Amino acid sequence: MRVMEQWAPAWCAESWDHVGLQVGDPSAPAPKAWTALELNEKLLEEALEAGAAMLLVHHPVLFQPLEQLRSDQPETARLIKAACASMAIFAAHTNLDSAPGGVNDVLGGCLGLQELTPLVPAKAGHEAKLVVFTPPETLDEISAALFSAGAGRTGKYRECSFAGVGVGNFLAPKDGDPYMGRPGQKEMVEELRLEVVVPVNRIPQALEAVRRVHPYEEPVVDVHYLRQPPKGFGLGRVGRLKAPEEAGSLARRAAAELGAGWAHMGGRPPRKIERVAVVGGSGGDLLPQAASAGAQLLITGEARHHVSQQAADLGLGILCLGHYQTEAVIVEPWAHRLSRELASQGLNCIVEPYTGGRDPWQPVVPKED
What mean pLDDT do residues 104-122 have? Predict the structure, then answer.
């Protein structure tokens, strides 16, 4: 869970979404975990048989409020079965869409797009700068406490901080017990100014971590909310093809690459396409943003009927390749990345992708006469 929060933090999920641990005990061991697009009966049976202790799924298993939790209803029966087997289920949905290296980066890479950037960059206000003043000898301990609370991440880098030397002044109360100096005396002491970036939703944990290990009776901590958006986060991606490609050829190639049984093109794509936007799943609502980004084609999984006319009015094309096909691309890279991250942090867990998934919507083949 901590590794997932470092990669695809919950703050970058959409406000309507439900992500994180949805079933299970957060303190339970997870010697084996599987990644998958979504939970179904077949996946659950195979995971239990294989001894998987945790499922990481893209589509949340708890999305709408539950009024009943019954074993005779398939949707909730699966949750009961998982819980009774002590299996944890963790959802990473729009946060995995938005995060660098997530669904849309993988989708764009599969289709040969270069120079990918977020189509809708994440808004500012999700990060803060935490500043704490500390004696030099406790710098390492306080830094470690902050890092363990989720602070100090900048892009792919971890345990990032800055420390500057300064002079602190204070007058300790007569009945105080100062770490440095004497009660009732004014003091000037050498201190370090420690700065780290922390996600806004982790500020309470970071403050608690500082106060737990700081040697001062009254540690001084400042929190400055940052106005710049975090780099690389956001919905969708836009990029360019290595060379311009004819619209029909691109559609056929994309469908073959993703294993889509059909491809529907709408709007008004130009004959040759170079700049393309991608949105895994249902991305028709981001058509105006794709047009504003200069995309000549938006590739997504599905869209509403009238989006095709909207695309024509905006002067670009829209290509739908299936909700499942445009998101299932994340399952294997997800498992591989988790395996690397866990190993680099000294955590023992086997992470495997579930490759037995199948699009629940299947094309109907006309019967031959």
Answer: 97
